């Protein structure tokens, strides 16, 4: 399909969960239209999965997306470009946090046939970073995990842990140097949060970004980047970010 003049197809990530992604999409659409002005109309969609988002980029069904590092890397490999990167707590990197139930604590070095919930194989903090960290620790991944559930979102992965379907999951966490420390557990009610325990952190990765397809023309790319970087209204509510910065 490719880019259509004056029309921008923007896709939200699947990892937010369908309800949250749809809600934010309804808010982000007007936010983008206000900043891009009459130059571009904006059409909002929610990705079915990270894998589907990558395929949509390859098929040129997507112009721009809010995406995790792995998806951004795949798009860049195909000739796309990161438009802006998110800064949170003064940092443009993040980690994965390993989560278990407080009443059934685990140790990462001795995981043995543990049932685990991942977000998706393309998720950085929900699959790639934690597995890489365990390998660095010398953990045999073929022995460490039993049943492996791919939940599709962080909320669904945490629900699987809280309902005893699995014994371990992972969520995003702030970089060690971040001025404000946050994790994917912060959105849980206190009663549920108290049932869970962080047992370790992975190494760090670049934050998520907004990435553009190779078919987006240079003037449109420059307009989008300039307007996003100069905007500071609503960033906390929409992107849970302090600033949008050039990658």
What does it look like?
The chain is α/β, with parallel strands linked by helices and 247 residues long. It folds into 2 domains: 7-87 and 208-245, D-Maltodextrin-Binding Protein, domain 2, CATH 3.40.190.10; 93-205, D-Maltodextrin-Binding Protein, domain 2. It has 9 helices and 12 strands. Helices cover 34% and strands 26% of the residues. The model has no long low-confidence stretch (mean pLDDT 91). 42% of the residues are buried. A 6-stranded mixed sheet has the order 2-1-3-11-4-12, sandwiched between helices. Strands 5, 6, 7, 8, 9 and 10 form a 6-stranded mixed sheet that branches.
How is the topology of this model organized?
Elements: E1 7-12, H1 18-36, E2 41-46, H2 50-58, E3 64-67, H3 69-77, E4 81-87, E5 93-101, E6 114-118, H4 124-136, H5 141-144, E7 145-150, H6 154-162, E8 168-174, H7 190-193, E9 196-201, E10 205-206, E11 209-212, H8 218-229, H9 235-239, E12 243-245
Parallel strand pairs: 1-2, 1-3, 6-7, 6-8
Antiparallel strand pairs: 3-11, 4-11, 4-12, 5-8, 5-9, 5-10
């Amino acid at each position: 399909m490719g880019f259509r003049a004056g029309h921008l197809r923007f896709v939200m990530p699947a990892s937010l969960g369908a309800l949250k992604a749809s809600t934010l999409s309804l808010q982000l659409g007007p936010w983008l239209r206000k900043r891009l002005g009459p130059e571009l109309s904006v059409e909002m969609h929610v990705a079915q999965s990270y894998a589907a988002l990558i395929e949509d980029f390859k098929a040129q069904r997507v112009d721009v997306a809010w995406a995790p590092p792995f998806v951004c890397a795949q798009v860049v490999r195909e000739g796309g470009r990161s438009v802006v990167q998110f800064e949170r707590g003064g940092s443009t990197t993040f980690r994965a946090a390993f989560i278990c139930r407080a009443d059934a604590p685990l140790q990462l070095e001795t995981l043995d046939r543990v049932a685990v919930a991942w977000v998706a194989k393309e998720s950085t903090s929900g699959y790639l970073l934690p597995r890489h960290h365990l390998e660095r620790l010398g953990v045999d991944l073929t022995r460490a995990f039993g049943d492996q559930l791919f939940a599709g979102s962080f909320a669904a992965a945490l629900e699987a842990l809280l309902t005893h379907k699995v014994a371990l999951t992972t969520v995003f966490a702030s970089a060690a140097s971040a001025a404000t420390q946050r994790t994917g557990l912060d959105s849980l009610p206190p009663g549920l949060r108290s049932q869970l325990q962080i047992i370790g952190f992975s190494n760090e990765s670049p934050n998520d970004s907004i990435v553009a397809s190779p078919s987006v023309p240079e003037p449109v790319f420059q307009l989008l980047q300039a307007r996003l970087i100069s905007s500071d209204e609503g960033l906390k509510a929409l992107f849970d970010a302090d600033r949008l910065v050039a990658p």
